[in-house]
Amino acid sequence: MDFQKDLIQLDQSFQTKEEAIRFCGNLLADGGYVENDYVEAMIQRNKELSVYMGNFIAIPHGTDEAKEKVLKSGITVVQVPNGVNFGSDENPQIATVLFGIAGIGNEHLEIIQKISIFCADVDNVVKLADTQSKDEIIRLLNNVE
Predict the structure, then answer these.
(1) pTM score, two decimals?
(2) Above pLDDT 70, what percent of the chain?
(3) Measured between alpha carbons, how far is 136 from 130 in angstroms, rounded to an integer?
(4) pLDDT surpassing 80 at residue 59
(5) Mean pLDDT, to the nearest integer, of 111-128?
(6) C-alpha span between 107 and 73 (Å, rounded)
(7) How far apart are CA 128 and CA 26, in angstroms?
(8) Is 108 a catalytic site residue?
(9) CA count, 13 A, side-chain hemisphere, 23
(10) Catalytic residue among 17, 45, 61, 134
């Protein structure tokens, strides 16, 4: 996995999950990783099946139909210290770290798997959520095998 500093955003705040997903998608679009249409496909994907993964992380990504909108594989890491609710008021699912993913072919599956393994240890999620350094986020995630 190759993490780009311009795709890492620290200390963000969102009112809604749609706003958070759109932010991740726009980072990918602005960086030339995806066409703008991919952002809407990320919103649609979450409506079909929640991108909340547990352990305070969410992994927004597009629908299978939107794969043709991916120009090159990329991954955003967005810190949300106050969290954003991917669930409902009755069943809150708070994410403090978002990984926005666009993958060529099946690359996104490998990326999701590596992130899931790393974030299965909630201590790792806390480190990602608390660090004040993009370099530290890259260092932590580059230790993922």
Answers:
(1) 0.94
(2) 98
(3) 10
(4) yes
(5) 90
(6) 7
(7) 21
(8) no
(9) 23
(10) 61
How many CA atoms, within 13 angstroms, populate the side-chain half-sphere of residue 49?
Answer: 6
Strand order in the sheet with 94-102: 8-9, 74-85, 94-102, 57-58, 52-54
Closest CA to 76 of 106, 140, 44, 31: 31
Say whether pLDDT at 2 is over 60.
Answer: yes
For 129, other C-beta atoms within 10 Å of its C-beta total 19
SS (H, E, C) the chain: CCCCHHHEECCCCCCCHHHHHHHHHHHHHHCCCECCHHHHHHHHHHHHCCCEEECCEECCECCHHHHHHECCCEEEEEEEEEEEECCCCCCCCEEEEEEEEECCCCHHHHHHHHHHHHHCCHHHHHHHHHCCCHHHHHHHHHCCC
